[in-house]
Amino acid sequence: MRVLMIGHFRGYELITRHERTVRIGKGVFIGPGTIILPNVSIGDGAVITAGSVVNRSVPPMVMAQGNPARPVARCGVPLKWGTSMEEFSQKLRPLPAAKSE
After folding, report:
1. Which are the contacts of 5, defined by CB distance < 8 A and separation ≥ 6?
2. What is the pTM of this model?
3. Which CATH number fits domain 4-99: 2.160.10.10, 1.10.10.10, 3.40.1360.10, 3.40.50.1000?
C-alpha cells in the first residue's frame, strides 16, 4: 500500500520558518494511494478513501473522499479490526453538503 504524506520541505528558508505538520488521530483509516498535504489534521476515527488528496483538515469520525478530499459522511462506528463492513456501512450518515453533489 502506498500513501504519501508531505509534512515539511527542507532547503527553502522561507518555508522552514513555519512548521507544516501532518497530524493523524487514533483509529484513522487511510486508503491506498492517498496523498496528505502539509498543515492537515485528521481526527480520531476518520476514514480517508483510496486515492484521495487531503488538503484540509478532516474532523473526527468523518469519511472524506476525492481530489480534493471532501467530507461525505459521518461514521457511526470506527472502521477498525472487528468492525464488519456491513456494520460500518449501515451506520454511515451522509452529510448534508454531500447529498447535493
Report:
1. 22, 35, 36
2. 0.78
3. 2.160.10.10
